[in-house]
Write a structure and sequence with these properties.
The complex is a heterodimer of chains A (282) and B (252). Chain A is α/β, with parallel strands linked by helices and 282 residues long. In chain A, β8 and β9 form a beta hairpin. Chain A starts with a strand and ends with a helix. In chain A, α4 crosses α5. A two-stranded antiparallel ribbon of chain B has the order 1-2. The longest helix of chain B is centred in the N-terminal third of the chain and has 31 residues. The N and C termini of chain B lie far apart (40 Å). Classes of the chains: A alpha/beta (282), B mainly alpha (252). Chains A and B meet through α1, α2 and α3 of A and α1 and α4 of B.
Chain lengths: 282, 252
């Protein structure tokens, strides 16, 4: 059974339809990234799956339950990291986790969760003294405390410095190793590429492509850049060996140097930009 | 039990928030000491000024804590996204809100007890003449004002505006209802307004039980008025209470 199934999901705010029939599925135990620019509909989609918003059309199942009708049992099996939401600033880290652990039927051990997210040094610190990155780790800890089967992470590393981001990635990999199904939204390509088993690119309320990072890059496109007569030249090709050979032998024959020669494989970012640009032009 | 688990933390949060604890808990006590020292020895409406002011300031304390403090706390939590976070857990909304209100009721009980003790030993005010009816009147007032506090959160849009709006409602109300003096001294137009306000009737209940030693059952009109206001608050709250912050440009 899929952990999350979304079919033909529609949502309007007033007269403006922001989701035009979104469909995807997250399999049990996988990390699935919903990638897209701001305003694409990522948060709306995730908040419908979390039960915060009502949909206007389509079918949605999370752990076999319609989140619009999900009660206590449903909420005890999901963990949520919202894009921005406060915790009580006057409680300590441990008090906060003790409080939330009490809400769930089978919580994880508070000490273990604090360890897992890397807040061990801050157990007795008041929440209001935590840095932005530490608060985000507390968010993650609160999403994990109920030992959920599905975890929603809405832009979990936005605003992190590179070191904190890497640490968060490690934590997410740890969660995956625990067998959790994770739906992640992000606008960082690198994050989606490194963490997820599969990626769906959402642009302007539609899924424009779905696949593993490898599948999205399946067509081996390579970009070759160099300068000739002071002019930047960019070639994209699916046959880099042949093109490079021709270029370099011509240059050798002419006795010139290919100035600033660079060869790049196409990145997921390029795929993403192409797809979201096409969408914007439609 | 989940209710007690939440109640304990809500109590902790109330006392750790020094500014809020000062304004909703200590301020009505300080007002009692100040007004009582000035007017305590005079006679108001045929009884000792200290006793009269004590009864009024207990009522003021109920509105400051159950209405103002509750409403401001909930708006600040809502706009910070805290209520939304709680809503995403298995904790039932009813358990959460009853624990938050239960915590407020504890504060009111402590506050009224402190006022009665200080009033008696410092200002020579009387003990409550009809203690059981007095306590029931306080409970009724706390419940009714808490319901109104929940209701008023639905018209406050921002955390920054919450104290301004809530104070603009309950401070004039306390004044016009006669929490600080006898309402008989009000000019006619304010008297008309005061007859519509819930605190006017709660003060009647508190004064009749605390000062005159009447039973609660002897004031059916005032009980009805307090209950009707409470039910109105409850209906508004049940229909319109929001858990999520107001969205700016909603991320589509």
């Amino acid at each position: 059974m899929s952990a999350i199934e979304v079919f033909g999901l529609r949502k309007s705010y007033g007269p403006r339809e922001v989701l035009h029939g979104v469909s995807f599925a997250v399999e049990t135990g996988e990390v699935f990234a919903l990638l897209g620019p701001n305003g694409a509909g990522k948060t709306t989609t995730v908040e419908i799956l979390e039960g915060y918003r009502r949909r206007d059309g389509g079918e949605v199942r999370v752990l076999g339950t319609d989140p619009a009708r999900g009660g206590r049992d449903f909420r005890s099996r999901i963990g949520i990291v919202l894009q921005s939401s406060a915790v009580y600033p006057l409680l300590t880290v441990r008090e906060t986790l003790d409080l939330f652990a009490g809400y769930y039927p089978h919580p994880r051990k508070v000490g273990g969760v604090i360890e897992l997210v890397g807040l061990a040094g801050k157990v007795n610190a008041r929440v209001r003294t935590l840095s932005g990155g530490q608060l985000r780790r507390l968010d993650l800890a609160l999403a994990l405390i109920g030992d959920p089967d599905v975890i929603f992470l809405d832009e979990p590393t936005t605003g992190f410095d590179p070191a904190a981001r890497r640490q968060a990635w490690e934590t997410i990999r740890d969660l995956r190793a625990l067998g959790k199904s994770i739906l992640l939204t992000t606008h960082y390509m690198e994050e989606a590429q490194r963490l997820s088993d599969r990626i769906a690119i959402l642009a302007d309320g539609r899924i424009v492509t779905t696949g593993s990072p490898r599948e999205l890059l399946a067509e081996q496109v390579v970009e070759i850049r160099f300068r000739r007569n002071g002019e930047d030249i960019v070639l994209t090709t699916t046959e880099p060996t042949r093109v490079l050979n021709e270029l370099t032998s011509d240059a050798l024959a002419e006795g010139v140097e290919l100035e600033g020669l660079e060869v790049h494989p196409r990145t997921l970012e390029d795929v993403y930009l192409e797809l979201t640009r096409e969408e914007a032009e439609v | 039990m989940l209710f007690l688990h939440e109640l304990r933390v809500q109590q902790l949060l109330f006392w750790r928030n020094r500014e809020a604890a000062f304004f909703s808990f200590l301020f009505p006590i300080i007002l009692l000491v100040l007004l009582g020292s000035v007017y305590g020895d005079e006679e108001i409406e045929g009884v000792s000024g200290a006793t009269y002011l004590l009864a009024g300031l207990i009522g003021y304390g109920v509105s400051a804590t159950a209405f103002a403090s509750l409403a401001i706390t909930l708006v600040v939590r809502r706009e910070a996204g805290l209520l939304k976070r709680v809503r995403g857990t298995p904790l039932s909304p009813a358990t959460y809100l009853t624990a938050v209100i239960g915590s407020i009721v504890i504060v009111i009980a402590l506050q009224a007890a402190a006022q009665v003790l200080i009033g008696h030993f410092l200002l020579n005010a009387d003990w409550p003449a009809s203690p059981t009816s007095f306590v029931v009147a306080l409970g009724l007032g706390a419940a009714s004002f808490a319901a109104l506090g929940l209701a008023v959160t639905t018209v406050v849009r921002t955390a920054e505006g919450s104290s301004a709006i809530v104070n603009a409602i309950y401070l004039p109300m306390a004044f016009i209802s006669g929490a600080f003096f006898s309402p008989k001294e009000l000019p006619r137009f304010l008297e008309v307004i005061s007859e519509a306000l819930p605190l006017t009737y709660l003060l009647q209940l508190i004064r009749s039980t605390f000062i005159e030693g009447e039973l609660l059952s002897s004031s059916p009109g005032a009980i009805t008025a307090v209950l009707v206001w409470g039910l109105f608050g409850l209906v508004v709250a049940l229909r319109m209470f929001r858990w999520a912050p107001r969205e700016g440009m909603s991320e589509a």
